[in-house]
Amino acid sequence: MKTKTLLLGAAASMALAACVPGGYTGANNPDQGPNANRNAGAITGALIGGALGATSGGDERLTKAAAGAVVGGLIGGGIGSALDRQAQELRRDLTTNGVSVVRQGDQLIVTMPQDVLFATDSASLRPDLQRDLYTLAGSLNRYPDTTVEVVGNTDNTGSADYNLNLSRKRAQSVASVLQAGGVAPGRIIVSGRGESDPVASNLTAEGRQANRRVEFIIRSIR
């Protein structure tokens, strides 16, 4: 019994240690450091692994729970570390003004303003501004255990139906470039939200400009 208690304590200590904040402040998210995703993944993995171990029957249930927590924590921490590395690389390599990379839980969100990719009221990509898309494709190829959701967004100028259709066409145009860059079609999800998901007020020119964007939501599949 003492051995089982010690094992459970070790697993709990590992999860708690992952919660200790570091001394770094992320450039795009001041509340999360470079190890934030690794730590969150370790905690989640430990909890899942412990729960699976605890469902086993017999006197070894607690021992299996502790072992499951340790293994789950290691796996979850590895996923988080990969997301952190990918975020850092994308911030380094995507140099166009207005492009941002933000960690949000267990996913990365890359945002490219419409003006970086499209002319006004058009779904045809500007040929001189596709470098960042191929850079992103290269990153996705280096991290194959991920999917990417390409989401088109517009401001509220014009009818809602028109904007929704335009946002979908733009997302599809961008997805086509990612595929041309070697990303497997099965890893890409395409959607358009039109004017339904603003990040700023549509009452100002600056706000409407911010709302016209394409987002790339990168998620781990392991």
TrEMBL record:
Residues 1-17 form the signal peptide. The keyword RNA-binding does not apply. InterPro entries: Bact_OuterMem_StrucFunc, OMP_bac, OmpA-like, OmpA-like_sf. The keyword Signal applies. Keywords: Cell outer membrane, Membrane, Signal. GO terms for cellular component: cell outer membrane. SUPFAM superfamilies: OmpA-like. It is found in: Cell outer membrane. Pfam families: OmpA (PF00691). Residues 105-222 form the OmpA-like domain. This is Membrane protein.
